[in-house]
Structures are given as structure tokens and as C-alpha cells.
Amino acid sequence: MSIENFIVEKVKSANIKFTRAQQLVADYVLKNSDKFTYMTANQIAKEVGVSETTVIRFSLTLGYRRFSDLQDELRQLVIEDRTVQRLQKTQRNVKEGQILNASFEHDMKNLQKSLEQIDEFEFNDVVKLICGAKHTYIIGLRSSLTDAYYLAFSLNAMLGNVEAVTDNGLALESCLLNATKDCVVICFSFTRFTAITLEALQYIKKNNQCKVVTITDSVRSPAIQYSDYVFIMNIDSLTPIDSHVSSIAFSNALIAAIGQRQNEKVEENLNTLESYFKQVKTFYDN
After folding, report:
1. Cα gap 229→255, rounded to integer Å
2. What distance in Å separates the CA atoms of residue 262 and residue 159, rounded to the nearest whole number?
3. Do 228 and 167 share a structural domain?
4. 59 and 125: one domain?
5. Average pLDDT over every residue of 261-269
6. Keywords, A to Z (predicted)?
7. Structural contact between residues 130 and 152, judged by C-beta atoms closer than 8 angstroms
8. Mean pLDDT of 220-245
9. What is the secondary structure of 199-237 as a DSSP string?
10. What are the angstrom distances between the C-alpha of 15 and each of 21, 27, 81, 267?
11. Minimal CA–CA distance to 247: which of 205, 186, 174, 175?
């Protein structure tokens, strides 16, 4: 459903008659739906030229208990609308049979934009933190699961003290209970921002006092407020599903940098693993 249809349906269902000031707020929502989802009521009021109370009453008039409830529902609509638009744009602009090259070129642009946004000094600080950490927990749920598992699998083979948290089960409980100020938590959190991930970060930052590193796709990510280091990835895609190429590339850079910094330890751990793999015949042997 489009934002326009959403507002119209709300007005019809509640038999609403807006005041002139509320009509100004409605017009602002229609023209700036994306901005509306992350601005405060006070910020919106200043831009529209009405009182903060008017903005809040606008949401109450539409049937919401809180202004934030309206923002939450609009945020989902904006995301869904953007997903459909992305697919339609691909259908219009990319000819059949050209999608392979177009997709690779799109991801190369994502990689370049992501690289330009990374602070190399902060990147090096994070490498030092991980190398010196007592334990590293890597959180990623739903679409971020692959990112978290790949980085955790690679770093644990190298360092031996890394754990993937990819659901709200025992691994998450272990993280919440055992993470301390000597530990590092790395979080992958992309648009739509899984609630469990955010609740875990909030708890960890408040109670465990460990360093939090967040890999996300937006400066509006709610995970940022709980993070000590933030890296923004471009995840734009020609499909309805976001591209995680930049995120995986960032993980590869971390893996390479940590391998370089902890060369002897990594080599020893990898040799131990290889010896075990041979002993139990983990891999197919011709």
C-alpha cells in the first residue's frame, strides 16, 4: 500500500476531519514519508510550522496510542514501498539478458561507496580490540545471519574465542550472561532492524559494559546509540532483497587484518585444526 492510500484509508475508517494544522502535517507526511519515520515530533513541528502538540494529536486522531506507533507503521510501509519500487526500476532499466553485468556493476558501486565511508583509524582500532578481547560475540539475525556466521566461523578458526549469535536461543543467552568489559560484541543490523538484536545491544551496553561494533546500512540505525564503533555499508540491490556484498567484503578485511596482526597465533590454531581434520577425516579425500 502506498503512503497516500494509507492516509486516505485511515481517514475514511475513522471518519476523521483534520484541523487546518493537522492537514499541514498530513501533507508533510505525504511529501516526506521517509524523513517522517525518524524525526522527532518537535523536529517535524518546526519544519511544518505547527506546534509539537499538533503533530502528536495528528497521530492520536489517526487512532494510534503514541506518535512512535504511527512512525513504526509508516516505517514498514516505506520499506515495503521502496522494495517494490526497486524491483519495478530494475524491470524498466535493465533489459532481459543483461542482468548479470548490471548486478555485478551495481555491487561494485556498493563496494566503492562503502569503502569511502569507512574510517581506517577506527577500523584499525577495532582490529586491535578483537585481537585483545577475552571473547568476541558476533550477532546477526534473519537476513544478517549469514554475515555473522561467516565472520564468526572465520575468526574462531583463527583465534579460538569467537561465537556466532544467530538466533534468540542459547548463544544469545550466553552472550548476555557472560560478555564482560573485556569482551567485544560485533553486530550486523540492517534496515528493518530486528527487535531482538536491538534489545540485546541495549542490555549489553547497559549491564555488561563491553565494546560494541555495529555494521549497518544507515545513520538512522537504532543500533548506533548502543555502539562504540559504527561502519556504514551500502546494500542497495537490483532485487527486492538487499545486497550484502559490502558487508562480506568488510568482514574479509577484518579477517585479513587480524590474521596479519596475530600471525603466529593464527598459524598455530589453523595447524591444530588441520591436524584434527586429518585425524577425523573431515574432508573428502581422493
Report:
1. 17
2. 8
3. yes
4. no
5. 85
6. DNA-binding, Transcription, Transcription regulation
7. no
8. 85
9. HHHHHIIIII--EEEEEES-TT-TTGGG-SEEEE-----
10. 18, 18, 26, 70
11. 186
Range of the domain at 143: 111-280
- The number of C-alpha atoms within 13 Å of 99 and in the hemisphere containing its C-beta is 10
* H/E run at residue 188: strand 184-189
Say if residue 103 is exposed, middle or buried (CB neighbours under 10 Å; 0-12, 13-18, 19+).
middle
* CA-based nearest residue to 258, from 147, 180, 161, 165: 161
Q: Look-up: residue for cell 518546526?
A: 46
How many C-alpha atoms does 111 have within 13 Å on its Cβ side?
Answer: 13
In CATH, what number is assigned to the domain containing residue 32?
Answer: 1.10.10.10
Please indicate, yes or no, whether residues 23 and 136 belong to a single structural domain of this protein: no
- Can you tell me the distance from the alpha carbon of 203 to that of 175, in angstroms, rounded to the nearest whole number? 10
Same domain, 117 and 194: yes
- Both 67 and 143 in one domain: the answer is no
Could you tell me which residues come within 8 angstroms of residue 63 by beta carbon, excluding any fewer than 6 positions away?
10, 13, 14
φ, ψ for residue 6 (rounded to 5)?
-60, -50
Residue for grid cell 558476533: 138
In degrees rounded to 5, what are phi and psi of residue 243?
-90, 130
Question: In the chain, how many domains are there?
Answer: 2
Question: Is the per-residue pLDDT at 86 higher than 60?
Answer: no
**Each residue's pLDDT tens digit, 106-138:** 899 999 999 998 999 999 999 999 999 999 999
Q: What is the Cα–Cα distance from 64 to 160, expressed in whole angstroms? A: 49
Alpha helices, H only, the chain: 3-14, 20-31, 33-36, 41-48, 52-61, 67-93, 99-117, 120-132, 145-159, 170-178, 195-203, 245-261, 263-280
CA distance 43 to 27: 16
Question: 86 is written with which cell numbers?
Answer: 526497486
